[in-house]
């Protein structure tokens, strides 16, 4: 309730679609909350001479760094294109998310080291009500902050805010472990805080590893969102007389900043100027509708050639028995009389071993020569750049 109130109060209607506005809000709230926690814990830790609370206070101070990184990342991502970066600075958000993810890993390693030291050199914990209450308040505050950033991350599908959210939740787990250890110290001298800390730190390290993997993936160039792929193909096919598509490639230059290229198949008997007009219209309208920059390459398809149609039927039968080939396109017959080449592009999985390309081509050649001895098959192998494993 309070989260939605903050969002509606601090993000004006004119910026409801602004990623920077959400990132800025998440960063500022993170800085304010962590400053308050630092001041309160440092003050309580000093007057009670509690090392645990004082250490936790400085942990909150370091968390401010994550909030600052978040703000910087969104600020960079919102910068317009320039000479050096013609496609904008959108990937700055991914870099910020990566930095925060590494911060989570660092917290995990530090907590692992501290937990091991507690097991190796156990020291008695003294239960103190003031310390315990401060830790519980810190837990609830960090739970809210984590949920707040989670809500923001879902609103704009942000890996950076998702990493910041987990950074808060990792603090919740660590502080809860310290609080439970204080309670346990009333009943046992066994260093339960060290052993539970080991388990918790391993969980944080595993989650941190997944966060790094998720944030670094778009920087390396991951496959596009299947829904976006489906929408692009569906929209292109809605323009008549486009009859098929292939070779879709989508480049991401930050969240919501995509450049896509696709080949559209048009009957060869459509006048070239009319076909060009259709392609131009599709490019402009789809780009605006989907919020991308779309470039369409036109591929003419001969539908009225008897020889091509008959040969294509035989190729369909042969390729249907080869699991490696998902589909094919740009089918044509080149040459005259007894020396003709059947040429087409075959689409294969990204895991396809190129060493099998020659073997498959020979296999198709053998099959086709049984029917058409005068033909020679040439296959160009294309990978599916929209495929998710």
Note down, in words, how this protein is organized.
- This protein has 389 residues and is an alpha/beta fold.
- The chain has 3 domains: 2-220, Alpha-lytic protease prodomain-like (Up-down Bundle); 223-302, Alpha-Beta Plaits (2-Layer Sandwich); 305-389, 2-Layer Sandwich (Alpha-Beta Plaits), CATH 3.30.70.1350.
- The chain is built from 11 helices and 6 strands.
- The protein has helices spanning 2-10, 19-47, 51-77, 92-120, 129-156, 159-184, 192-220, 226-237, 272-290, 306-319, 357-369, and strands at 244-252, 258-267, 293-301, 325-336, 339-348, 375-383.
- The strands form 2 sheets. The chain has a 3-stranded mixed β-sheet, covered by helices on one side. The chain has a 3-stranded mixed β-sheet with strand order 4-5-6.
- β1 (244-252) and β2 (258-267) form a beta hairpin.
- α2 (19-47) runs antiparallel to α3, α5 (129-156) runs antiparallel to α6 (159-184) and α8 runs antiparallel to α9 (272-290).
- The longest helix has 29 residues, at 19-47.
- It is elongated, with a radius of gyration of 30 Å.
- The model has no long low-confidence stretch (mean pLDDT 86).
- It is found in: Membrane.
- This is Cation diffusion facilitator family transporter.
- The chain crosses the membrane at residues 21-44, 94-112, 124-145, 194-212.
- Pfam families: Cation_efflux (PF01545), ZT_dimer (PF16916).
- Residues 28-220 form the Cation efflux protein transmembrane domain.
């Amino acid at each position: 309730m309070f989260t939605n109130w903050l969002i509606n109060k601090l993000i004006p209607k004119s910026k409801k679609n602004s990623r920077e506005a959400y990132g800025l809000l998440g960063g500022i709230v993170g800085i304010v909350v962590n400053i308050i926690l630092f001041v309160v814990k440092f003050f309580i830790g000093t007057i009670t001479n509690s090392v645990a609370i004082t250490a936790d206070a400085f942990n909150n101070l370091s968390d401010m760094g994550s909030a600052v990184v978040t703000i910087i990342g969104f600020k960079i991502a919102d910068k317009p294109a320039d000479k050096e970066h013609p496609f904008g600075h959108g990937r700055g958000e991914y870099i910020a998310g990566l930095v925060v993810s590494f911060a989570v890993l660092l917290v995990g390693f530090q907590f692992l080291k501290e937990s091991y030291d507690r097991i190796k050199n156990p020291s008695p914990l003294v239960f103190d009500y003031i310390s315990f209450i401060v830790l519980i308040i810190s837990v609830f505050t960090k739970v809210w902050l984590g949920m707040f950033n989670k809500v923001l991350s879902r609103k704009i599908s942000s890996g950076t805010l998702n990493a910041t959210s987990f950074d808060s939740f990792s603090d919740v787990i660590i502080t809860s472990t310290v609080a439970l250890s204080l309670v346990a110290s009333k009943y046992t001298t066994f260093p339960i805080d060290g052993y539970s800390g080991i388990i918790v730190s391993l969980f944080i390290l595993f989650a941190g590893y997944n966060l790094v993997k998720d944030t670094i993936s778009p920087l390396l160039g991951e496959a596009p969102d299947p829904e976006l792929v489906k929408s692009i193909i569906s929209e292109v096919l809605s323009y008549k007389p486009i009859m098929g598509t292939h070779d879709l490639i989508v480049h991401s230059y930050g969240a919501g900043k995509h450049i896509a290229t696709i080949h559209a198949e048009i009957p060869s008997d459509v006048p070239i100027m009319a076909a060009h007009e259709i392609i131009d219209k599709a490019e402009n309208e789809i780009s605006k509708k989907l919020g991308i920059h779309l470039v369409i390459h036109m591929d003419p398809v001969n539908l009225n050639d008897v020889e091509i149609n008959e040969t294509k039927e035989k190729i369909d039968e042969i390729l249907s028995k080869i699991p490696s080939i998902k589909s094919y396109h740009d089918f044509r017959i080149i040459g005259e009389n007894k020396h003709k080449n059947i040429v087409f592009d075959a689409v294969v999985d990204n895991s396809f071993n190129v060493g099998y390309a020659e073997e498959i081509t020979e296999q198709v050649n053998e099959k086709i020569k049984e029917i058409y001895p005068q033909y020679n098959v040439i296959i160009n192998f294309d990978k599916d750049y929209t495929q998710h494993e």
